[in-house]
Design a protein that fits this description.
The protein is of the alpha+beta class. It has helices at residues 25-36, 58-70; strands at 9-19, 39-44, 50-57, 76-85, 94-97. The chain has one domain (7-88): Alpha-Beta Plaits (2-Layer Sandwich). Helix content is 26%, strand content 40%.
């Protein structure tokens, strides 16, 4: 049986496009990240997109991606671009930046 310490750790970098600013998307992201035990950050970008970096178990990150692709009821996700990177253990919490 696989334990959490055996879980594959990974890093997700993503940019979300659509109606994602002014609709609580960053707080939605923060809430899901905290629920799933992920660490990193989310921020609004000048072009109207939202950028995020999250680290944690790959299984939890996949759940995170699935929920972010849907977004909050008040918003609408048109495009979700992401890449996987090596886990860096860079964060001790998930936070909203800028």
């Amino acid at each position: 049986m696989k334990t959490e310490t055996d879980a594959e750790l990974s890093r997700l970098q993503a940019t979300v496009y659509g109606r994602v600013q002014g609709v609580g998307f960053r707080y939605f992201t923060l809430s899901i990240a905290n629920e799933l035990g992920l660490f990193g950050w989310v921020r609004n970008m000048p072009d109207g997109s939202v950028q995020l970096v999250a680290e944690g178990p790959k299984e939890q990150l996949n759940k995170f991606v699935s929920r972010l692709r849907i977004g909050p009821h008040s918003g609408h996700v048109d495009d979700f671009r992401h890449s996987w990177q090596a886990y860096r253990a860079e964060f001790d919490r998930f936070e909203i930046r800028g």
